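Progress note, sequence design subtask.
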């Protein structure tokens, strides 16, 4: 199976196929569109010059900030493991899907194939993989906020005081790992159910390529969700697809904002589960954590503090849970 997977990965990155090149063009094109909209929406109405555009799109106070420097260095480290992780995610999904489909076939009997056209099966697998990752990504992100023991690992992402595309990579390595592996496991379960229901055998190469395509799709959209400009797609579209302004608001210092808009690519999950917040016209906010949580003593302004402080907070959280359990008086009948 591994030989087929690596062969498919090699074909995927082969310049003669061009699939990766199509996605590679997607990010700069999307960025240029967002940048142009940001420039047109700026308050200062200076003449349109290259210098004015660059200054508006790449403001020095955002990109040269201490917070942004931590983002860049951590981003370089995470990018080094990003591709291997994307392959691992795909292999994890394949393994789960294969074992689940085999288990169901053994105990409930094999099913006759329902789809005889390859492209229909590939499209169905892509849709299931995409929706499963996005749905589970919503819940894992929400748990990181609502489960006290998980918040210390996600908190570094919210100590960002500026937003740039590098802020996407402002993730603690431990969080980065489970934010990818848990959704991939769920995607594998959904793929296994699809394969069994349609009587289709697992094709490791196909699923690997689909997984990488979905992973790159998430990368493109999620990168542009971490920009300093309030780009909106309009309230109706914002209810379905994550616009930069929606995640921009999620990084707000205001608590009512932060516990909203958990979606990764689709905000329809926020709409369905009551966590959607549509920014009001001319509404403004600051990024980061409030003074009670960190204030000026933010330890994540250095890479060392960024990596070590979450472990300390995580351990303190576990001790507090243990202390609360010790104070509970047992009842006897």
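Output:
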């Amino acid at each position: 199976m591994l030989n087929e997977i690596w062969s498919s990965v090699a074909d995927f990155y082969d310049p003669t196929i061009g699939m990766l090149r199509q996605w590679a063009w997607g990010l700069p094109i999307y960025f240029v569109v967002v940048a142009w909209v940001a420039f047109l929406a700026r308050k200062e109405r200076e003449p349109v010059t290259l210098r004015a555009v660059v200054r508006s799109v790449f403001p020095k106070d955002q990109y040269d900030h201490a917070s942004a420097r931590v983002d860049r260095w951590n981003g370089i480290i995470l990018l080094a493991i990003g591709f291997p992780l994307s392959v691992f995610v795909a292999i994890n999904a394949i393994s789960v899907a294969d074992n689940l489909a085999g288990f169901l076939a053994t105990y409930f009997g094999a099913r006759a194939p329902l789809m005889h056209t390859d492209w229909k099966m590939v499209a169905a697998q892509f849709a299931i993989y995409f929706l499963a990752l996005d749905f589970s990504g919503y819940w894992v992100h929400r748990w990181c906020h609502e489960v006290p023991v998980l918040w210390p690992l996600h908190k570094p992402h919210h100590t960002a005081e500026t937003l740039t595309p590098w802020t996407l990579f402002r993730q603690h390595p431990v969080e980065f790992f489970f934010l990818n592996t848990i959704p991939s496991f769920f995607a594998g379960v959904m793929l296994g159910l699809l394969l069994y229901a349609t009587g289709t055998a697992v094709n490791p190469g196909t699923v690997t390529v689909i997984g990488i395509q979905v992973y790159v799709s998430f990368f493109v959209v999620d990168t542009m969700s971490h920009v300093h400009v309030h780009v909106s797609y309009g309230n109706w579209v914002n209810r379905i697809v994550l616009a930069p302004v929606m995640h921009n608001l999620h990084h707000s210092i205001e608590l009512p904002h932060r516990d909203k808009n958990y979606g990764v690519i689709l905000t329809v999950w926020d709409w369905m589960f009551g966590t959607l917040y549509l920014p009001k016209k001319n509404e403004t906010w600051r990024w980061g954590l409030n003074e009670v949580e960190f204030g000026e003593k933010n330890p994540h302004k250095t890479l060392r503090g960024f990596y070590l402080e979450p472990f300390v907070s995580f351990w303190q959280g576990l001790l507090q849970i243990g202390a609360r359990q010790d104070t509970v008086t047992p009842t006897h009948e």
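Residues 12-23, 328-333 have pLDDT under 50 and may be disordered. Work on this subtask will continue into the next period as scheduled.
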